[in-house]
Design a protein that fits this description.
about 20% strand; 7 strands; five-stranded parallel β-sheet; about 35% helix; alpha/beta; Rossmann fold; globular
Amino acid sequence: MRTPRQILEESVTIAVVGASRDPGKPAHNVPVQMLRHGWRVIPVNPYSDELWEQRTYPVLAEIPEPVDLVNVFRPSADAAEVVRQAVEIGARAVWLQQGIVSRDARKIAQEAGIDYVEDQCIAVVRASAGLTRKIEMR
C-alpha cells in the first residue's frame, strides 16, 4: 500500500464526495487548495451543478473520466457506501478527511486492493510534503 504522500504524488484526478458550496466549510476550502496546487478536482454533490468552475456530478458513477483518488467529506456512517462506489468506478485510492473513520470502509478498500487513508486532511498532507502538481499546458 502506498503512503498518503505517494498517493498524492501519483494521483492527478481527485473526485470530492461531499464537496460544499459553503466557503466557510473545509469541504469547500480543502478542494480549492488542491485545485490551486495543480490537481484536477471533480466535485460530487447532488445539489449543485458547478463548484470552483468545475462541473459537479451527483454521484461518482456519473463522472465520465477515470478518477485516481476519491476524497470523502461525508459522515463516517456514509463512508462504506462511498468506498463501494469508488471501487465500482475503478478509483485507485480513497481518502477520508480528518475526523472520518470507518472500519467497514477500510475493509472494503482492503478487500478491493485499493489504497485507503482515513482521519487525515489531504491539504495538510499536501502542504507538509510540499507537493504541487505541474499543470500541463495544452
